[in-house]
């Protein structure tokens, strides 16, 4: 991306713990004794998130690239947040299409290997990054449209739900939903809130308890996606939708989006630390670790 803006990076001591990984992932360098350093955005070579800007149209396409299944590793989450921040600071960009570079998979959701067999400090760091991704996407001032070009379970579905509009490929093998209960885990309240805000309370209750994964036509019926189109039209349709949303004056649309979404985001913002503690103690339980390990084994056996 031909960005030339200068971004001030705060001293590492002031950054959140997971930002150390972000520094490494993005190649940020801090001089010895560092009180912050100015670096050109051109140097932020991202590996797991590709950004294709179209300044003339005022849009960008953001593609997740973490093969084979775009699991949301700490590294991918970190790059996603930084890429979004860069786009939000770029005055030429007003809308973004989120999609996948991995054939047939939008995202397999949270990376199970980040939640299995690690220590509590790692779980806390990981969960903070998951929260950060959701808050940044959900409250983004940009118009966000999801071009769901593959399977989108759990955390993959959550990313799509943060967007202003969802276009899905019509392949019945692609499914979308919050299937956490099938793994023996529970969708956190803010996943649930985002779903309720999208498809309503009754449909969410059923979908969440049963861990339903909806094929595209059912996802459309329940309101989890807004449009289903042939696979080769997903990105172009998403770009057309983006243009429609961008026809609205930004300030009016942004204030309206904020009015609709802030109360939901505030529920998490008011209890971020408690939510991290909850996650760490839940995920550290032996029974939960066993469930996750069995689920991972099942995924691997499926191949053999
Ligand atoms: C109180 C409340 C407190 C809070 C309580 C806690 C809240 C937690 C919330 C959790 C949210 C989540 O997102 S949990 C994640 C949920 N995700 C899922 O259930 C999706 C699982 N994956 C799948 O269904 C499939 O992989 C699918 C995406 C459809 C693609 O199928 P394919 O046949 O193309 O590919 P596969 O052969 O299955 O997978 C290829 C490889 O990727 C691995 N893989 C697949 N999904 C993976 C994943 N999510 N994380 C890591 N690795 C994954 C497989 O093990 C394989 O590894 P190798 O064999 O080594 O190659």
From TrEMBL:
GO biological process: fatty acid beta-oxidation
Chain coiled-coil ranges: none
Single GO term (MF): delta(3)-delta(2)-enoyl-CoA isomerase activity
Pathway: Lipid metabolism; fatty acid beta-oxidation
Class in the EC hierarchy, top level: isomerase
Subcellular location: Mitochondrion matrix
Catalytic activity line of the entry: (2E)-tetradecenoyl-CoA = (3Z)-tetradecenoyl-CoA; (3Z)-decenoyl-CoA = (2E)-decenoyl-CoA; (3Z)-dodecenoyl-CoA = (2E)-dodecenoyl-CoA; a (3E)-enoyl-CoA = a 4-saturated (2E)-enoyl-CoA
Spans through the membrane: none
Pfam families, per the entry: ECH_1
GO cellular component: mitochondrial matrix
PROSITE patterns documented for this protein: ENOYL_COA_HYDRATASE
Keywords on record: Acetylation, Fatty acid metabolism, Isomerase, Lipid metabolism, Mitochondrion, Transit peptide
EC numbers for this chain: 5.3.3.8
UniProt keyword Isomerase, yes or no: yes
Quaternary structure and interacting proteins, as annotated: Homotrimer.
PANTHER family membership: ENOYL-COA DELTA ISOMERASE 1, MITOCHONDRIAL, ENOYL-COA HYDRATASE-RELATED
Record function comment: Key enzyme of fatty acid beta-oxidation. Able to isomerize both 3-cis (3Z) and 3-trans (3E) double bonds into the 2-trans (2E) form in a range of enoyl-CoA species, with a preference for (3Z)-enoyl-CoAs over (3E)-enoyl-CoAs. The catalytic efficiency of this enzyme is not affected by the fatty acyl chain length.
Annotated family: Belongs to the enoyl-CoA hydratase/isomerase family.
Name this protein carries in UniProt: Enoyl-CoA delta isomerase 1, mitochondrial
Organism listed in the record: Rhinolophus ferrumequinum
